[in-house]
Amino acid sequence: MKKFLFSVKPFALDFGLLILRAGFGISMFLIHGLPKLMHFSQKASTFPDVLRIGSKYSLIADIFAEVFCSLLLVIGLASRLALFCLIVVMSVAFFMIHKNDPLAGKELDLLYLTAFCTLFLTGPGKYSLDANLK
């Protein structure tokens, strides 16, 4: 029982990283990135300009991370670089855009940020293109 509860087999660890990558990457792409890309013209003038580069360019940077980098994360290619971009986006969302919101209002930002930081530290795992390109 102790072995079952406290040991981690390499397969389980790598499969868990795959599930984490795929789950958070796909949801970032479908729920956040794709809608912004599809409604770019409506959002371009009103998107928060926390980077001080203009609303349009801030939106482009956000879409780059939420669409392109999330897809890279799903397939496990250039994972740490993609995760760095996603961590920056979620840090801006959590610490700047939603700074005055109650914690319950920025819970999703914190969950994404936590998952992306975890994957950044662990790497994408065996079931990724990064691992197969070594």
Automatic annotation (TrEMBL):
Keywords: Cell membrane, Membrane, Transmembrane, Transmembrane helix
Record-level GO cellular component terms: plasma membrane
Transmembrane segments: 12-34, 81-98, 110-129
Membrane topology classification: Multi-pass membrane protein
Chief place of localization: membrane
Localization in the cell: Cell membrane
Family: Belongs to the DoxX family.
Name by which UniProt lists this protein: DoxX family protein
Organism: Solitalea agri
